[in-house]
Amino acid sequence: MKIIAIEEHLITEEIVAAWKKLKGVQDLSIKMTMGNDWEKRLLYTGEERIMAMDEAGIDVLVLSVTTPGVQGLMPDQAVELARGANDVIAQTIRQHPDRFQGFATLPTGAPDDAVRELKRAVRELGLNGAMLFGRTEDRHLDHPEFFSILEAAAEMHAPIYVHPQTPPVVVREAYYQGLGPDAEIFLAAGGFGWHYEAGLQVLRLIVSGVFEKLPDLQIILGHWGEVVLFYLDRIDAVSANLKLPRPISDYFRTNISITPGGIFSQRYLKWTIDVLGGVDRILFASDHPFNLSKHGSARRFLDEADLSIADKEKIAFGNWEKMWANIRR
User: Fold this and answer.
1) Residue 126 belongs to what domain range?
2) In what side-by-side order are the strands of the sheet with 100-102?
3) Over the stretch 92-107, which tens digit does the pLDDT of each residue have?
4) Structure pTM?
């Protein structure tokens, strides 16, 4: 059974250099990934990456620049670095077309340039959508400045993967500090905070009416729905006064797809299938290299799932192939 993993990260030396020159408070993920083995693995393309894929039992990786991408950089610099990173992804795909695909990274601080880069990445480079990180400074993804990016994605039927980033500084200071730097990173990032951050971005898209304006917009959420999926009954129950045309949970069956994001939990898989009413909105992702899926663990997760072969194949590759085959280039 072919396995395609779609939340799989890299970085370029140029973006690393730009991150290291940032002054003031930085995104915690930069501290987490720089100057250690993760940085080395993020820079790997080609044979080193393929060896790791083979060990995990993954056939194809959909590559994307890791969080926080270029969204926290000055617009002119972000435009140049985004183009360079997307060119690196495209070159990697050309060298190993049977093993790699890609999501574009976008300079959201310069929305017009971001639209042009999304179109170039999809139509000229052959990438299969984009990965965004929610906020750009203090502006959320539903901000009117970013509507043109979402509109272009919807017109091309190109999916957008909304990946977590660490919360704003004021939130970090209010909720996650005071327990030491290690505890802050744990609570504000992968342990808790950034999952809520990503889930909130998608809830804001729903509540702001974006999907009524752009019914063809397709969003992907990792880590089993970034907490929101496990709270949908409550969300539906208290959202009646919003006067949306349909329940919030319904958007997760028409416009939002879910991945494990490297959390290989059979319990979460069963819950997700129950909430979504089947497997048609579930895509596979291993979160490489942060989740080092050694000794066939990615393949073992699907092998051990209590599902039919047809449903396993949908999660492993079928749903994603259907999604990217629908892209209008």
Assistant:
1) 4-325
2) 4-10, 60-65, 100-102
3) 999 999 999 999 999 9
4) 0.96
